[in-house]
Amino acid sequence: MNVHNAEIIISAVSPKQYPETDLPEIALAGRSNVGKSSFINTLINRKNLARTSGKPGKTQTLNFYLIEDALHFVDVPGYGYAKVSKTERAKWGEMIETYMTTREQLKAVVSLVDLRHAPTQEDIQMYEFLKYYEIPVIVVATKKDKIPRGKWNKHESIIKKALNFDKSDDFILFSSQTKEGKEEAWQAIEKYL
């Protein structure tokens, strides 16, 4: 998809705030510093529509982005960030779970993991959660440019093994620096639109 129009529509915390449209939605989930905002900005050819921040854990709401009047990207709060209280984290968890399990417009979730590290317990839980609820998932391993090419396969297999990865899901190596993986990510997303 070639994106010329993208805008943030609403930051929601509960279902009554979700946009009332039938447009398909693709949610983006991942650890706080995995590069979610950079991924969104790369896909929509923008520098900073999704705010990147040196302070992980900034997204605390479900942010709905309207893309080309054709779909919504829904940026969900990053998980696993230590500076947030347990009660705050539990609230986010509930908000994300409510959205993902009740929203009919949700077509797939892009689950972002960091290619440099083995998946965290939360990464694994997110993947298992999506599989359990039979929500289509696209795993995107970010920060590909930070690892020498010769080690990509090794890192990919570590992640797939930890996730108990289902071969029928898409797995994409991605770099917001070099834009590698951008086309593949759009192809995977478009299958669900």
UniProtKB/TrEMBL annotation:
Domain G: 25-143
Nucleotide-binding found in the keyword field: yes
Superkingdom of source: Bacteria
Cofactor entry: Mg(2+)
GO cellular component, one term: cytosol
Gene Ontology biological process: division septum assembly
Keywords from the UniProt entry: Cell cycle, Cell division, GTP-binding, Magnesium, Metal-binding, Nucleotide-binding, Septation
A Pfam family annotated for this UniProt entry: MMR_HSR1
GO molecular function: GTP binding; metal ion binding
Similarity field: Belongs to the TRAFAC class TrmE-Era-EngA-EngB-Septin-like GTPase superfamily. EngB GTPase family.
HAMAP family, per the entry: GTPase_EngB
PANTHER family: ENGB-TYPE G DOMAIN-CONTAINING PROTEIN, MSS1/TRME-RELATED GTP-BINDING PROTEIN
Function: Necessary for normal cell division and for the maintenance of normal septation.
Entry protein name: Probable GTP-binding protein EngB
Species of the source: Enterococcus quebecensis
Native organism taxonomy: Bacteria, Bacillati, Bacillota, Bacilli, Lactobacillales
